[in-house]
Each structure stands twice: as structure tokens, then as C-alpha cells.
Amino acid sequence: MARYERPPSATKHARAMRREPTDAERKLWLLLRDRRLSGAKFRRQAPVGPYIVDFICPRQKLIVEADGGQHVENRNDAARDEWLAKEEYVVVRYSNIDILKNPEGVLTDLLDHLQKRPKYFGGSPSPGRGSLRSPRPPSPPEGRG
Prior knowledge:
- By secondary structure, the protein is of the alpha+beta class.
- It has one domain (10-116): Endonuclease, Chain A (3-Layer(aba) Sandwich).
- It is 36% helix and 17% strand.
- It has 5 helices and 4 strands.
- The chain has helices at 10-19, 23-32, 75-86, 96-101, 103-116, and strands at 43-48, 51-57, 62-67, 90-95.
- It has a 4-stranded mixed β-sheet, with helices on both faces.
- The radius of gyration is 17 Å and the shape is globular.
- The N and C termini lie far apart (52 Å).
- The relative contact order is 0.19.
């Protein structure tokens, strides 16, 4: 793994970005937070090395980016994605329009990416609470069963 020096202002900048999300980031965060997607834990606007990523599932080293028009064929994004790939992260990008107009399609695709990724830390995932999680059967009442 490469060594990097995180800029001292990275955490401060990430916090500021959390306070002012785009409409697409706000919508996607509502769908990902609190382990709503198959129990996967996501963080938003998180520093990763010298970069700040929109969303990250650290356990599966999966990064989700909500991209507006400024990201089309952006050289900085390509260099960033290359650095993240060297650190074993996978970056998945969705257009803001897709997030806003087709959130179920985005979540279905993201769930597919999650299921393909190995888990990098021990323990078992907590059950999710979102619409795309597997339902758990109800527990039998106390004293019966």
C-alpha cells in the first residue's frame, strides 16, 4: 500500500461538504444511511488518503460517487480512481440524474457491487433495514415454540 500524507484540512473540508450536500447526495444518503442497503455500513464525505469520497463502505472497500456533469471525462477523477484502485478500493459512479430519477435502479446495481466485493474486516454484518434487504422471520413468542 502506498504511503500518503493526508492534508491537515481534509477532515475539516469533509465536514463542510457534509453540511452542504447536492440534491443527489442527499437522496442517496437517505437510502444508504443506517445500514439500509443489505446491512452495509456507509459513511459520507469521508477522507480516504489524500481524497474525499462521496460515500464509502469501508468493510468492502467500495466507494460510491454521485457525479454531476463536471465529472465527464475528468482527468483528476481518473488519477484519483487509479490511486484508489492501488489501495484496493472499487469506485462506482452514478450520475446525479440517475440517482434522482431512478434510485431503485441505482440501489439494485450498488447491491450487485456489494455482493461481489470481499469483506476486508472480521465479524458478521448487521442486518439491514432498507427495502433491498432480506426479510427476517419473526421470532416465536416467549414460552411458545
